[in-house]
Design goal:
RNA_MeTrfase_RsmD; 16S rRNA (guanine(966)-N(2))-methyltransferase activity; Rossmann fold
């Protein structure tokens, strides 16, 4: 679930909450509360199921980075499917706070929430272990994806043979990839296009 840059989350009352459902794994069927504020865009179960079918053999024990985390739906699904760890980047404080609460309710210490601007955070050199799986599902119509891909490549965020999931609006310009990167999966559903990129050289 994502937020447009200028959205202002509502107060976290019972009427202002939605929910996301975990599809499979340790917490299969579990529903988690998320902000239901103007500008939030849910990643549908249909799209999420397609993604994790693509990643079926890769998620377990992987280090994952959830850029533009929003509700954290993708990263938490990865944890449910026994990812080793997930770092969630979320700019908006209310969404980051709710994500921390949801991770606490799941009694997991494998998720780390960082309240930060994603582009600013990725602009620094990564000094920790790089990531095997990266989720990029930013606000639509702001052309964030090319900048994120460049920063991931330049600043040591990518493990060897990393997989990068990208979700964009259907009319998004074609992605210009590094020479040895390739799109290995792609699908459109409604107004959303999803693809999986294989990083074959860093």
């Amino acid at each position: 679930m994502r937020k447009t840059p200028n959205s202002k989350p509502q107060k976290q009352t019972s009427k202002a909450m939605g929910e996301v459902r975990l599809i499979a794994g340790l917490w299969r069927g579990r529903k988690l509360p998320v902000l239901n504020a103007e500008g939030l865009r849910p990643t549908t179960d249909r799209v999420k199921e397609t993604l994790f079918n693509w990643l079926m053999m890769d998620v377990a024990n992987a280090r994952c980075l959830d850029c533009f985390a929003g509700s954290g739906s993708l990263g938490i699904e990865a944890l449910s499917r026994q990812a080793q760890a997930v770092v969630f980047l979320e700019k908006f404080a209310n969404a980051a706070q709710q994500l921390k609460k949801n991770l606490a309710s799941l009694k997991t210490d494998k998720g780390t929430v960082i309240n930060t601007d994603t582009l600013t955070y990725l602009s620094q050199k990564n000094s920790t272990e790089p990531f095997e799986i990266i989720f990029i599902d930013p606000p639509f119509h702001h052309n964030f994806v090319p900048h994120v891909l460049t920063l991931l490549q330049q600043n040591n965020w990518l493990a060897e043979n990393a997989l990068i999931y990208v979700e964009t609006e259907k009319n998004h310009p074609p992605l210009l990839l590094a020479e040895n990167w390739q799109i290995i999966k792609e699908k459109s559903a409604g107004m959303v296009t999803s693809c999986l990129i294989q990083v074959t050289s860093i």
